[in-house]
Amino acid sequence: MINFNEPTYTGREPEYINRVINVNHMMCGDGEFTKLCNKWLREKVRVSEALLTTSCTHALEMAALLCGIREGDEVIMPSFTFCSTADAIVLRGGVPVFVDIRPDTMNINEELIEEAITSRTRAIIPVHYAGVGCEMDRIMEIARDHSLYVIEDAAQAIMAEYKGRPLGGFGDYGCLSFHETKNFTMGEGGAILIRDRQNVEAAEVLREKGTNRAKFFRGQIDKYTWIDRGSSYLPSEMNASYLWAQLETADSINGDRIRKWDMYYDLLKDLGEKECIGLPFVPSYCRHNAHMFYIKAKDLSERSRLIGFLKENGIQAVFHYIPLHGSPAGLKYGRMSGEDIYTTRESDRLLRLPMHYNLTDTDIEYICSKIHEFYEV
Predict the structure, then answer these.
(1) What does the DSSP 8-state code read for residue 120?
(2) What is the pLDDT of residues 115-145, one digit of tens each?
(3) What is the pLDDT of residues 94-109, one digit of tens each?
(4) Sign of CA dihedral 198, 78, 289, 307
(5) Is the CB of residue 287 less than 8 Å from the CB of residue 254?
(6) What is the pTM of this model?
(7) Is residue 1 part of a domain?
(8) Which of 140, 243, 271, 283 is the most interior residue, by most CB within 10 Å?
(9) What is the count of structural domains for the chain?
(10) Would you call 267 helix, strand, or coil by DSSP?
(11) Does 159 lie in the same domain as 273?
(12) Phi, psi dihedral angles at 238 (to 5 degrees)
């Protein structure tokens, strides 16, 4: 079986985990490896601060708290996203307001955002699907015009760019994922990116259970205490050490994924030209990170048959996201603004192919040959 996903593993992870246990003797967070990861992210995304978290879900929750989302506040987002995007708002008593996507990039349709704004709107959450940037110039313009926060859900977008700028660094806050399905992993984990220096201290306090512990460890105060609301969003050094083994060779891992993505595209291009399938679209001003390679079947029925055919031939392929606006929780806690023209239709067509560190060229050639066989081309 060619697995859909296998967690990235470089070989140095056991060495660094051993250092945490037997050399540093510090397994709680904010040790050597947490600091290395934070510094790498801060410099790579070019933000004031980056802080590892226990998940991207928790990074989104932190961002909602830092933006002051309260009961009844509305936050605009695409319906085509993971439930964590909406959960972060619902947990604060807020209302997710879903808008339709663009069929080309599967990202939020930036031209539908403004009509979804009401007197209760507090923020916009663009989601960079497949590591392809949303139209951030327009989104940031709308946010400025209406005095709204922007929280980037960049769970899939590490090392991707929009017009030469790293994704995750445009909004007030950016949220990354290092789940095992992502390009770089720590098993479960994430990070919150803070654009503006004046918001860093509040994020540190929130992440450290409402204490000023971070200042204490920097030697800025002689003791730390509880000063504000907070929770425990800090991952252990074990997780951070695993992640660091990948971040230190991130360019190589990213380059390998891009090469595999390009190979898929080249081998399936003829099916796209014959309109048997749809292929991913990446605007010329976006630099994607090959987080995934997907194709689009004609409709839901054809996609289901293709998934079954690939499974029979030892290939695990999956679909992605049931639109939130029609889910039980989406109907209970949120609402759709405008029409669902593309969200359901395009999500019913989309099929994700295997993409991971251990995938070989032979695997990709075999997968593409079976897709050609299915379409008898």
Answers:
(1) T
(2) 999 999 999 999 999 999 999 999 999 999 9
(3) 999 999 999 999 999 9
(4) positive
(5) no
(6) 0.96
(7) no
(8) 243
(9) 2
(10) helix
(11) no
(12) -60, -45
